[in-house]
Amino acid sequence: MKKTNSPLFLSLGILIITTIIVAIFGVVPLPEYAILNNEEGLKGKLIYHVQVQSQNLIPPAPDIMDECILSIDLEAGSFKEEKIICSSDLYDMSYDIYFYDAEIFENENVLLRYWDESSGDEMGLIINIKTKKVIEKIKEPNFYTERNRMNVYGEKLIDPWDTSDYSSRVIGIYYANRMENIEVFKSKAPTNYYFESLHWSPDGDYIAALDSEENLIIFSKNKKSKPGIIKFSEINLKIFDDEEREIQNLIGWSN
Question: Which residues have C-beta within 8 Å of that of residue 77, sequence separation ≥ 6?
Answer without folding.
Answer: none
